[in-house]
Specification:
Blueprint lengths: L12 H5 L17 H20 L38 H8 L5 H23 L5 H12 L2 H9 L2 H23 L7 H6 L4 H16 L8 H21 L11 H4 L9 H6 L18 H22 L8 H20 L1 H10 L17 H13 L2 H5 L6 H20 L3
Helix pairs in contact: 2-4, 2-5, 4-5, 4-7, 5-16, 5-18, 7-9, 9-10, 9-14, 13-16, 13-18, 14-16
Length: about 425
């Protein structure tokens, strides 16, 4: 067995087999004959979830909701390419749609985008958690597809943001493999491009890529090549923004309107812990405006605490290092709370620095918080949940399935409002 560089450990197969830790990547594990059907079960469950969440949106016709304005045939014009007189707010997403709907009918293209922005992310987070049990992975994809961030951004029509959300776990996986082997996976540019169809999504994707390359075990000098890949993916809106730099500032007073907001009895920072807090009250699920939002927090918080405790005590390792997950959560939550606590300075930044208005929408930054939250919940479900609930006399299998059902119930409360 290979020796490990400091800090490198594999998935938990070594511990289960009673041997020492193996290297982080590529993991040295014995193939599990159950892996194929487990992946299939998670994929089927993910597809069921996506079908339930989207529902009639997958039927005939175009889905029109706030910023999601889809037409039969979007012509390739100067403003679509970001070369018009107006500020390019939909670059390069509109350009991609204009090109692709020449090949795929516009209606079908929208359905594929709707499916991909939820199903792709669910399959990605399942790959991140491949070393855990199937029940914990089912709970994880449930939380990935059913959470306030997804619901609120879906109603707002922010499909480029949700495509970036779907690309996020794949970018983490690609960056981890790149750092471990010294070679970028051939497929990595695709999720980076899909995650860069808007300014905010592109910035989040770039941060995810660079954090995965800078932190964790493996080669430490890849950040320059990672920055080059990220810059190439952001080039369309960067060039377009430079052409409209004088128009790229916004009204400082608008920062208060777009700041992180409270939901029900939860103030902004606590709403952000449960991935809520959108500025537009009209898109908030009804269940989030009452005591149910507090119940969701009380259900989620013990799982997160248990996940942290088990990850530290048992040295749980998933397919990506913990360091970038923690960094991304901290950046996303702190920036979101900053818009709630200090909207004045955020507005001043947006009014002076071109492009600074991207930071105004506080809850949109919570996309960076989702991976760590979902992974911790999965680790908690896979662990000794009975020690938290004082139900040690029950079989662990019962406890795990019960915790998975609790996670599904919390998501189901959101589903009822779609």
């Amino acid at each position: 067995m290979r020796s490990c560089p400091p800090g490198e450990v594999s998935a938990n197969a070594g511990e289960k087999a009673g041997v020492g830790r193996t290297c982080f990547a590529p993991p040295v594990v014995t193939p599990d004959p159950r892996a194929a059907w487990q992946r299939g079960l998670v994929a089927v469950w993910s597809l069921v979830l996506v079908g339930l969440v989207l529902g009639p949106a997958l039927g005939p016709g175009y889905v029109l909701s706030y910023d999601m304005v889809w037409v039969r045939d979007l012509a390739v014009r100067a403003d679509v390419l970001g070369l018009g007189s107006g500020l390019p707010r939909a670059v390069p997403s509109d350009a991609w749609v204009a090109v692709l709907d020449e090949v795929v009918p516009g209606m079908l293209l929208q359905k594929l985008v709707l499916l991909g922005m939820l199903l792709g992310g669910a399959l990605g987070i399942d790959r991140v958690l491949a070393g855990l049990g199937v029940v914990s992975r089912l709970a994880a994809v449930t939380l990935w597809c059913w959470n306030p961030f997804v619901v609120e951004r879906l109603v707002l029509g922010h499909w480029p943001v949700l495509l970036g959300y779907a690309a996020l776990p794949w970018v983490l996986l690609g960056a981890t493999r790149w750092r471990a082997t010294g070679r970028a996976p051939w497929w990595l540019p695709l999720p980076v491009l899909l995650g860069s169809l808007s300014v905010s999504a592109g910035l989040a994707t770039s941060l995810v890529l660079l954090s995965g390359l800078v932190l964790g075990p493996g080669e430490r000098r890849l950040w320059a090549r990672g920055a080059l890949l990220a810059s190439a993916a952001q080039a369309p809106w960067l060039v377009s923004g430079l052409l409209h730099v004088r128009d790229a500032v916004s009204d400082p007073a608008a920062a208060r309107l777009f700041a992180l907001s409270g939901e029900g009895p939860l103030p902004g920072p606590l709403a952000a812990l449960t991935l809520g807090g959108v500025w537009n009250a009209e898109v908030v699920p009804v269940s989030r405006t009452g005591p149910a939002s507090l119940v969701a927090l009380l259900a989620l918080a013990p799982l997160l605490v248990l996940g942290v405790r088990r990850a530290r005590r048992e040295a749980i390792v998933v397919a990506v290092p913990w360091a970038p997950l923690v960094l991304l959560w901290a950046v996303g939550w702190l920036l979101a709370v900053l818009t709630w606590a200090a909207p004045g300075p955020v507005g001043l930044l947006a009014g002076v620095v071109p492009g600074g208005g991207v930071l105004r929408d506080g809850s949109r930054l919570l996309v960076l918080c989702v991976p760590l939250l979902v992974v911790l919940v999965a680790v908690a479900v896979a662990g000794q949940v009975g020690s938290l609930l004082a139900l040690k006399y029950l079989p662990q299998r019962w406890i795990r399935w019960g915790t998975a059902a609790l996670t599904a119930w919390v998501g189901g409360r959101l589903l009822l409002n779609l």
